[in-house]
Amino acid sequence: MNKLPCIILTGPTAVGKTAYSIRLAKEVNGAVISADSMQVYRGMNIGSAKITPEEMDGITHYLVDILEPEESFDVYQFQKLGRDAMQKCYDSRHIPMIVGGTGFYIQALLREIDFTETTGHSSYRTELEERVLQPGGTEAVFALLQKVDPVSASIIHPNNRKRVIRALEYYHETGRPISEHNIEQHRKDSPFNYVYFVLTDDRAKIYERIERRVDLMIEAGLEEEVRQLYDRGLTEHYTSMKGLGYREWFPYFKGNCTREDVIRTIKLNTRHFAKRQLTWFRREQDVTWISLPVYNYDPEQVVSYMKTVCREKGLIQ
Questions:
Q1: Do the Cβ atoms of 213 and 263 come closer than 8 Å?
Q2: Is there a contact between 262 and 252 (Cβ–Cβ < 8 Å)?
Q3: Which of the listed CATH numbers 3.30.360.10, 3.40.50.300, 2.60.40.420, 3.90.226.10 matches domain 4-113+188-312?
Q4: What number of H helices and E strands is found in the chain?
Q5: Cα–Cα distance between 56 and 310 in angstroms, integer?
Q6: Which of these, 21, 40, 39, lies nearest to 31 by C-alpha position?
Q7: Share of the chain above pLDDT 70, in %
């Protein structure tokens, strides 16, 4: 059976995925499926660095601005919506391009990971959810994960309560680390003929761009954007508010830190996030790394190389 074509374009935050994805989509007749856990939300434009209609430049985009911030969103929903979007791409004779920095989302779609091994909501999950809300609870629950599944603990941020609890729940139900399950799923053959591009750069350059990006977000009104959501009744416990650039503001709104503390923390957390992204991508298989300095940051050279790889893989003529 012939496998359907698919392109993945990812890399650490602030590396320039958006601009390159538009250029490549124009060259290969592609449509973009956003693999970003925050760009699905309406009204969260600045902090998520959401692509604008002008930046889309006529390229069809899926999974952008489809939910209200009060709604939850996770990898299961992404997988379902992503599959639907891919089918729409094929129906319209476009190559689906999965673009974004959430590696787990990309893996779930690319390898059709099965999430049905464990049951639904458990009493143990409820217990953990209640525990993290207690003083010191987040640290205590993460310490449990470090003990039973150090591999997952090295990838998941301690403040990502949802994923920490999910990993612990899996261990509780199956008696084995979820990281082992993920490795097994990772080894599954993909039903797609794909190319997996990872854009990268010198770490110092990535950190420089992160610093500048955060400064530009502040200038563009990030505080006001989050304040409106806060005044709307959203708290740090909503899925949407756990995103970088959003969760850091709540202590400030409550009078527990300064505005400068918030900005410094956003920059620090974003640098840590970029580091974890690169760690994730290094564990992926069949990855085509694209070091931007090698191409002198020239978009034409980069896209030309990506087209060559796509042609060699039989994705385009």
A1: no
A2: yes
A3: 3.40.50.300
A4: 14, 6
A5: 22
A6: 21
A7: 94
Amino acid, res. 283? R
Distance CA 209, CA 205 (A): 6
Q: For the purposes of burial, counting CB atoms within 10 Å of the CB of 211, is it exposed (0-12), middle (13-18) or buried (19 or more)? A: middle
Distant-in-sequence, close-in-space partners of 171: CB < 8 Å, separation ≥ 6 = 148, 149, 177, 178
Tokens 């970029």 identify what position? 274
| pLDDT over 80 at 149, yes or no | yes
Query: Kind of pairing, strands 30-34 and 61-62?
Result: parallel
CATH architecture of the domain with residue range 123-182: Orthogonal Bundle (1.10)
Domain ranges of the chain: 4-113+188-312, 123-182
pTM, two decimal places: 0.81
Q: What share of the chain is helix, strand, coil (3-state, %, to 5)?
A: 55, 10, 35
Residues 6+ apart with CB under 8 A from 229: 43, 44, 69, 240, 241, 246
Average pLDDT, the chain: 91
How buried is residue 53: exposed, middle or buried, by Cβ count under 10 Å (0-12/13-18/19+)?
exposed
Residue-wise burial string across 241-266, b where 16 or more C-beta atoms lie within 10 A, e elsewhere:
bbbbbbbbbbebeeeebeeeebbebb
**Taking Cα atoms as reference points, which of 103, 107, 123 lies closest to residue 115?**
107
Residue in the structure block whose two tokens are 């959501």: 229
The answer, yes or no, to whether residue 116 has pLDDT greater than 80, is no
